[in-house]
Amino acid sequence: MDPGVEGSNPFTHPIAGDMDKEVLVEKIKGQTKNGRISCRQALKLASELEVSPKEIGDLLNELKIKIAGCQLGCFP
After folding, report:
1. 11 occurs within a structural domain
2. Could you tell me if 10 and 58 are in contact, meaning their C-beta atoms sit under 8 angstroms apart?
3. Domain-located, residue 32
4. Cα 33 from Cα 47, distance rounded (Å)
5. Which of 9, 32, 39, 60 shows the smallest number of beta carbons within 10 Å?
6. Is residue 64 part of a domain?
7. Which residue has the higher pLDDT, 52 or 7?
């Protein structure tokens, strides 16, 4: 499936070069504390891992990790 097509799952294929979903999950979990990650940390991870913020957000939702300290003020 093409990751640019609505409804496709971007985690069914390697992302960020050779990085697969499991590696990305471990990187995210390494940045979480008490089931939360700051907005700033999530955006930094997206940039460092060369994935879109949407991909990180989708995976955070899947993992039930909450965003804290939202830079837009949406999540305290």
Report:
1. no
2. yes
3. yes
4. 20
5. 9
6. yes
7. 52
**How far is it between the farthest Cα atoms of the chain?**
35
Q: How far is CA 63 from CA 5, 35, 49, in A?
A: 22, 9, 18
> Residue 60 sits in which domain range?
21-68
Instruction: For residue 28, tell me if it sits in a domain.
Output: yes
Which pLDDT value is given to residue 3?
47
Report if pTM > 0.85.
Answer: no
Number of domains in the chain: 1
pLDDT tens-digit readout, 1-41? 444 444 545 444 444 444 678 888 999 999 999 999 999 99
Give me the half-sphere count of Cα atoms (radius 13 Å) on the Cβ side of residue 69.
10
